Amino acid sequence: MKRTLLALLLLSGCATSGYGNLSQPQQGDVRRVQAYLNTLKGLKATFVQNGPDDGQSAGHFAYIPGHLRLDYVSPHPMQLVAGEGHLVLTDQGSGAVTQLSLKRNPLGLLLRYPVRFDEGVQVTDVRHGPDSVQVSVAQADNPSQGLLTLQFSDIEGRLELVGLQGVDARQHHFGVSLSEISENSSTDPDIFKFPSE
Hints:
Residues 1-17 form the signal peptide. This is Outer-membrane lipoprotein carrier protein. The protein has one domain: outer membrane lipoprotein receptor (LolB), chain A. The protein contains 2 helices and 11 strands; from the N terminus they run ααβββββββββββ. The protein has helices spanning 2-15, 24-39; strands spanning 43-50, 56-64, 67-74, 78-83, 86-91, 97-101, 121-129, 132-139, 146-155, 158-168, 173-183.
């Protein structure tokens, strides 16, 4: 009896990771999203961000697999650089610097490279809309640490990242909407270096 219970617990633990519990069409969408994110040479856009206090900010967005940079223009200049397991936010007005680990941050789920949704990640939902698809992911071993939803336009089978929605362990919500998107344009990798480097 104890062995049977242990085996069931181990199997249930394995089932929470990845996306094998999804329907075949949903699994196909997850694989398409993985391939898109891993082969994207770079993405630049303008963004509008809604924060947990209903505040709104805007600026310029840059992404290459494994790295992200946000240059805030409003409400005041700030720079966010994330990758390699860390996030650094610099307030260019006050000079204040905030450093965070991405280990338990929803953004960390996007900034792993290569992106794999079957290793330590649980796909919690896949949804379709008119010419759109979104995939929600969480840490497989501790989903309460945060949820990240990746939003894509999906026109004639071609994906394009258009937004991010997230909620962290403290239930703080954020949303980033992208516009004026330019894919696979030349992106200088030096812009993703942390300010101290």
